[in-house]
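re: ur question from yesterday

yeah so i grabbed the chain u mentioned. its 428 aa long if i counted rite. heres the sequnce exactly as i have it in my notes:
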Amino acid sequence: MASYEKRGKSYRIKVSCGYMVDGKQVIRTKTWTPDPVMTPKQIEKELQRQIIVFEEECKIHPVTSAMKFQTVAEEWFEQYANLNLKNTTLTRQRQLTKRVYKAIGHIRLDKLTARDIQKFINSLAIEGANEKTGKPLARKTMVHYLSFISTVIDYAVIMDMIRENVCRRVRVPKGSKKKRHILTMEETKQFFELLEDHASLKWKAFFTLAIYSGMRRGEMLGLEWHDIDFVTGMIHIERTSNYTKSKGIYTDTPKTENSVRYIKVPVQVLDVLKEYRAWQKSEIHRLGNKWQSTDRLFTKWDGRPMNLQTPYGWLKEFCEEYDFPFYGIHQFRHLHTSLLIGAGIDPTTVAGVLGHAQVSTTLNLYSHMFRENQVRACDAVANALSFNEPPKPDPPENPNKIILTENCKEGENKQARIIYIKTEYGTG
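ran it thru and got these structure tokens back, copy pasting raw so excuse formatting
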């Protein structure tokens, strides 16, 4: 915004060009002296024209920040990230700085080009970029790097240090995608049998709940007994258990606002949880003052919150011991989602169950499953309008089908609620 002041026979015009990274405002000035023969009305009219012309010059030739990218990034951490981001997100962003600062941290922000950033992103797609495997980084990881750089530059744009975000012209290579494995119904049945025969009550409860609820690992470990209504079968998800190196294990709010939600589990799960709660109470009595009460479902031996890596490590050893395929903890969330979609549940409801912030997230992650449903929907319409064709016989019973029934309690509606889970919906 421009302003002016009269200085003797001249006028000094001032235009703000934003702020430097240290918060200092950048002001450009211009002195204009009117012709002595001009009338006051002419002077006022020409002064306004001079102000407009000078403002346009400042837009065409702005004063940009001469700070290096790393300096601006640290300013962003201090002024925004530390104040607004969750600890886990902040930690991940900090981890990205090692590669980014080495590649472009020394470049002045006003000299940083799309070509510089593209060169860095492309370097993540070559063999050896992943220091652990020697392979290129996954495309999702490349997206995280570009997103971090873009966020810092967006901050600089908002602070009027530069006029545009050059990341808009950068493209992420295809890279490698992590294959998503989903247990088949035969494998799911086998896994339940292994839990029943060989797992302790704690892990039987943990993984039964994981499959039937689709909760994230942190949400599972953040559950407390008062979150469960054993009468209605409703579970309130309102916290998550997280870990960072600096803070250790700590409790936080869920990933997004929509992640705070209620879900319902069937009576089979409630029965397992009741049995597990009884066992935990006996452990509390046995340990006495050694037990540290937290009301958490899944804890260390003495009641303290469980480490986030413990379920992963236990499952890996369990699968190796009994020669069962190991796809990680998150596979059970994918399995739960595939069953919902296979049952014809609409995307909005699926997103609500999973706690996704937007329905588009659900559609993007599970687009192939929804496409399969669209094909079946098309066939359903065609079959319904086949007036002159004889009815098709019912298909033979699928031997791989699992029927899960929820038993009704005394006094409730006696109609059993049955969930059909077909094999084709669970293939990886």
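noticed a couple things. The domain at 189-324 is CATH 1.10.443.10 (hpI Integrase; Chain A). also The chain has 14 helices and ten strands.
anyway ttyl
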